[in-house]
Design brief:
By secondary structure, the chain is mainly β. The protein has no helices and 11 strands. The strands form 3 sheets. A 5-stranded antiparallel sheet has the order 1-2-9-8-7, with no helix packed on it. A 4-stranded antiparallel sheet has the order 5-6-11-10, with no helix packed on it. It has a two-stranded antiparallel ribbon with strand order 3-4. A hairpin with a 2-residue loop joins β3 and β4.
Length: 135
């Protein structure tokens, strides 16, 4: 399933013949956009603390996971509307080539996790090619 565009994919695992997010009960809203300096990934995670979040790099995949606790509702309450997700979550993004996940930086502010992934720096190697005297 494509999460944002054809170059960024939501990775799923097959469970009982159906595809489902791995070890997650919900998937947070996520924006991914390109700038001149790299990719910006914004994940909406209101009501969380940064120490409840985990970011993992697996090859060209970026995994954001955590657990949003549900400690604010009264016991034995009866919902009329319930749209806020609680509990464990996970989202995994497969990034296109050309970005350096090893240099990614993350910040959490006002309910949004922002991950900046810079453009990979091309390493230019200079190699001399020998020229043979030919017949």
């Amino acid at each position: 399933m494509c999460k944002v565009s054809s170059s960024v994919h939501f990775v799923t695992r097959s469970v009982g013949g159906r595809e489902a997010p791995a070890k997650a009960s919900w998937v947070p809203n996520t924006d991914v956009y390109a700038t001149d300096s790299g990719l910006v990934i914004k994940v909406e995670l209101a009501g969380m603390r940064s120490d409840n979040l985990e970011i993992t790099i697996e090859g060209i995949r970026l995994r954001v996971s955590g657990n949003r606790p549900d400690g604010c509702r009264a016991p034995k309450c009866s919902f009329l509307v319930m749209e806020i997700n609680y509990g464990p979550f996970e989202t995994m993004l497969e990034l296109p080539q050309g970005y350096d996940l090893g240099q990614a930086k993350a910040a959490y502010l006002n309910g949004f996790l922002r991950i900046d992934v810079p453009v990979a720096q091309a390493q230019v190697k200079s190699t001399k090619v020998p020229i043979a005297e030919g017949n």
